[in-house]
Amino acid sequence: MDFRRIFSDKEYAPRRDLAIILLLYLVILAASLAFDSFDHVIDFVEQHEDWEIDEALTGLLLLPIALGIFAARRLSEAKKELKLRLLAEKQAHEMALHDPLTGLPNRRKANMVIEAALKQADSAPVTLLAIDLNRFKPVNDLYGHQAGDQLLLAVGERLKAAVADDGLISRIGGDEFCAMLSGIPAGDQLIRKVETLSEVFETPFLLGDLSVVVSASIGVVTTDVPDTPLDSLFSQADAAMYRCKGTGRNEIAFFEAGMEQAAIQRAKIETDLRTAIVEGEIRPFFQPLVNLYDGEILGFEALARWHMADGTMRMPDDFITIAEETGLISDLFFVILKAAAIEAKNWPVGLHFAVNLSPVQFGDEWLVERILQTLVDVGVAPGRLEIEITESALVSDLDVARNVIVSLKNQGINISLDDFGTGYSSLRHLSELPFDKLKIDRSFVHGIETNSASQSIVRAVTALAHNLGLQVTAEGIETYDNAKSVMDSGCDIGQGFLYGRPSRGGQLALPDGSRLETGGEPQDDSVKPHGEKAA
Known about the structure:
8-stranded mixed β-barrel; 5-stranded mixed beta sheet
């Protein structure tokens, strides 16, 4: 028996105090017997009869009984208070180590478990998975935070069931989860386990009356080196996760050398992007949209270009996805929209301008009003604006997309379905939604003159669109052979390097062959992409 614990632990305090009282009683009893204490008391009482000491002693005889009852009750209350205190301390300890929403271990708890597992990594390899939900923010924006919380709970339950006894699942924060697998060596067994975790996102999550589809980007790193620094593992898992971030689909990436540098570069782009939007470093370049049959320029598409301080230029593929993930896409959209509208105000009134709308922005309940206000502020008619929407916007939430599209159409704004054929939209979307144009993705146009499959697809899509009253734009036309093939397929409008590279506002070609001079700068060709020196 551990006597030190008995004398120090709060759990034993009531019994310890009772033992001390009994011990003192036995000591006093022994002393009384040894010295005939009671006889001395009797003699003293008889000698002082007038003091009424015997009556007082009679009352004292009853006092221990009352004190015993009091002590027993107080002891019972103390035991209850101690149990409540111990329970509260245990709950506080659990709260400090667990996520209050999902009940899963938090980062602190995960760190403790992972560090313990790493000490035995040579005999039981440790694998860390950084799991980040894709498109979680629109769920919060569209359906409210309660739906978002329900989704996180459901995700946590599925991941916990998938990990089972092979490790730990924890919520790191926001829409980020972390899984640790222990004892599974690198190879087919580990790959199958990681795929099992990814597969939990393949079926919709039922949140009451809602059915929500989300995917996840998963970064994986494994080690069999004991006492590997935990921060290093987390950093590598995050770097792998960012490799597959932005596709909008379930993606898995295993850490490879060089990924950490890519993650650092991504973080730098995010920081620089915030400044660039405010400082006006991102501006629209314009690429012509041409009538395929008479060569007339019908308008221009505004394409974002990021001008760097060293004279280089960063292309949209380098920063649009980051803008969407960080919530900067709305600010970026309105910067481009306003700048494009200012340029278009100086064009002939028959020319329109097109701007791409990100699916992420559909969660903005004031989106249509803000677009209209921008056009009013600049002084451009809504009928001159064409909003391009990708298929992924329709798949995310068709009802919300329909409301936005109808609202824009009611204000006279034209709507184009962009990159048709690369997403997951169905023909039902074309018949239900009031599109004006359909843009066939460049992947079908490249080499179309020698690809019979592409020719059949473009011809069929064009015929379908015409039957629905839509015009068809072919993107990525670079050669005369491309142009002839899409014309033979029935396309109406062409866009691509054959008709002009993206140019700054001051160098736009007009239908009569003249240049539109508005104080702009040289063409895109004179400013090389980021990483190359300007000419």
